[in-house]
Every structure is written in C-alpha cells, then in structure tokens.
Design brief:
353 residues; alpha/beta; Quinone Oxidoreductase, Chain A, domain 1; Rossmann fold; 2 domains; 7-stranded mixed beta sheet; 6-stranded parallel beta sheet; 11 helices; 19 strands
Length: 353
C-alpha cells in the first residue's frame, strides 16, 4: 500500500517551502525503500522551486542529494538489504535500453531520464518527489552504495555537486601532469578543486574575489588567478589543458578561452542558458580549442566517484541545517553565504513545524 510520509514542499513559485504530507508510490519488485537521513541543498532546488527554468510542477518536494538507510527491498532486489547505507542522486529511472543507457550514461537517456523530483514516473505517471522528506522509493538500479569510510553527512552533496565535477574530469582524462583551472569557488568549484588535485593535476582557481585565495589553497589549489587582473590573465595565456567552469549565471568565457593551450577544453557545468556574450569563434578556431558541457554522471560513474572519495578521504564542505531553516538557507545561498553546501538533517522533520 502507498507509504505516507512527511516533507517540505513548494506550493507555487512564490510561496515559501512548508510542511507537506504525501504518499510515496507502491513498492515494485525491483524497488528499494530508503529512510532518508540527510539531503543536500542544491542551487537547482531554488531554480526549480521558483520556476526559474519554466518547467516546475507543484506541489514540489525538492532534493536530489540523498543519503539514507535501506528500510526494505522488493522481491527481486538482491544487491541491497535492510540496514545498508545508500544514496540517491538526480535520477531515479531511465529507459534502460537506448545507446546512452547501454553505455552507463543514464543522464543522457534518449527517452529522458526520470528526475528525482519535479518529474513524472515513467511507469505510472505519478509525480516524483525528492529528498526533503522522510522516505523515498527508488528502483534498485538507481541506488548507490555508500562505501565504508565515507562521512554520510558530507557525502550527500557528492550525489550532485560531486558527480557534476567528477564526470568531466574523468571524461577529459585529467590526471598527473594535467594543468587544470576551475572557474568559481562554490558548491561545484570547491569539489572541482578537491577532485582535480586528488587526480594528480596542477590546479588553479580563477576568481573575481581576492578574499577566496586562502580557502582555495586550503582545498588544494596550487595557484589563484584574479580574472579581473589583466596582467595575471596574460601570465597564464595558452597555459591550461582543461578548464572547469562552474559559474551558474551569465558571464564572459572569452578571457578564459585564451588561457587554454592548443586542443584544450573549457567545460561548462554551472550555466544552463545562453552564453552572454557569445564565445568568440576566433579564439576557438585559433587554438583548436573546445567549448563543451557536461551533466552530472551515470550511475556506475557515480559509484566510482563515491569509492574514490572513500579511498582519498574526500567529502563536501558543509553546513548542517534543520529543515525548518530551509527558506533562510535559500536566501543565504543567493548571497553566496555558505561554505560550501547546506545539508538538511532529516531527523529535524520530527520537530514541531
């Protein structure tokens, strides 16, 4: 029978998130029911809750950086058992038969991946609700195992911020000897620095804020370049193999393109929208440079990332909050007043609203 759970939801684009009770769908044979312990707060939660991408479905329970404990499993599930610590990221299903799914790249499913929230279940048409809630029911193929040694609290944002930066670093084969730059030091950027450094790269942060240098070096950056300083930018012309651009709003990528060596790549992971101003084709053609993009990562790749984090002691820098503080957290995120990711303690749902 359906599972009634408590959570927090947005009722409209202009309303604050508030307590909300709803039913999770019936368990299927290949499903896993998860008691949610922690849920990261992603900037895309704000975009979706406020309908900034013009595709929002209400009521909406956000949250796609979920860590919890298996409560029960369906009759055909053999890879998980009650009590296992697990995670769920941005996807809860896909077609499972297109070329992208066959290659373990479910995020590019040619029939549209099913997102953890603000979507509809591909089997029964019911809305999907996210991790700002007590429990979730997910297909076993989209459940990640939390390896021993991972801090569950700091692991929650790995399921979006972590994999979003890990996937392009792996795809473009960043490793020992690579010269990598990260644009922006936020939830994505701080993980990009940690991962690139752990993979053996020489890491530089591009920033407009001189005050971020100390933190960037603490996170693993070897160098910091002020992108507003012409002399510093000229000093790194044609220097980098790879640039990870994590900035989520419109900005000029052209100065960064000139810091790429021949055959270098700038990969966008933060901006969902037009480039303004546009990329200068002369800068691309003149060095056979590439401007590309990357979306989260597949399930196998996400598990690889979690295992790497356990092996290297990597987690997100977080600030824990109660769910009753979520609206204030959204406002603080818009002011960049968090280092570097909020994580909700879902046990706080038991408190009086």
């Amino acid at each position: 029978m359906p599972l009634n759970v408590r959570g927090y939801a947005a009722a409209s684009a202009t309303s604050a998130l508030a307590p909300y009770s709803f039913n999770r769908r019936d368990m299927r044979a290949n499903d896993v029911e998860i008691e949610i312990l922690y849920c990261g707060v992603c900037h895309s939660d704000i975009h979706q809750a406020r309908n900034e991408w013009h595709n929002s479905l209400y009521p909406m329970v956000p949250g796609h950086e979920i860590v919890g404990r298996v409560a029960r499993v369906g009759s055909k599930v053999s890879t998980f058992k009650a009590g296992d610590f697990v995670g769920v990221g941005c996807m809860v299903d896909s077609c499972q038969h297109c070329a992208s799914c066959a290659e373990g790249l479910e995020q590019y499913c040619e029939e549209h991946a099913t997102w953890t929230y603000n979507d509809t279940d591909r089997h029964d048409g019911l809305p999907t609700f996210g991790g700002y809630s007590e429990r979730i029911v997910v297909s076993d193929k989209f459940v990640l195992r939390m390896p021993d040694g991972v801090d569950l609290k700091t692991a929650a944002p790995l399921l979006c911020a972590g994999i979003t930066t890990w996937s392009p670093l792996r795809h473009w084969k960043v490793g020992a000897g690579s010269r990598v730059a990260v644009v922006g030091l936020g939830g994505l950027g701080h993980m990009g620095i940690k991962f690139a450094k752990a993979l053996g790269a020489e890491v530089t942060l591009f920033t407009r804020s001189p005050g971020k240098e100390a933190d960037a070096r603490r996170l693993g950056a070897d160098h910091v370049v002020l992108s507003t300083d012409d002399a510093q930018m000229k000093a790194v012309a044609s220097h980098f193999d790879f640039i990870l651009d994590t900035v989520p709003h419109e900005h000029d990528i052209n100065p960064y393109l000139l810091t790429l060596r021949r055959d270098g790549a700038l990969v966008l992971v933060g901006l969902l929208g037009p480039l303004n101003p546009p990329a200068n084709a002369a800068y691309v053609i003149g060095g056979r440079r590439t401007v590309s993009g990357s979306a989260i990562g597949g399930i196998a790749e996400t598990q690889e990332m979690l295992d790497f984090c356990a092996e290297h002691g990597i987690g997100c820098d977080i600030e824990m909050i109660d769910i009753q503080d979520i609206n204030g957290a959204y406002e603080r995120m818009l002011r960049s007043d968090v280092k570097y990711r909020f994580v909700i303690d879902i046990a706080s749902l038991r408190k009086a609203a």
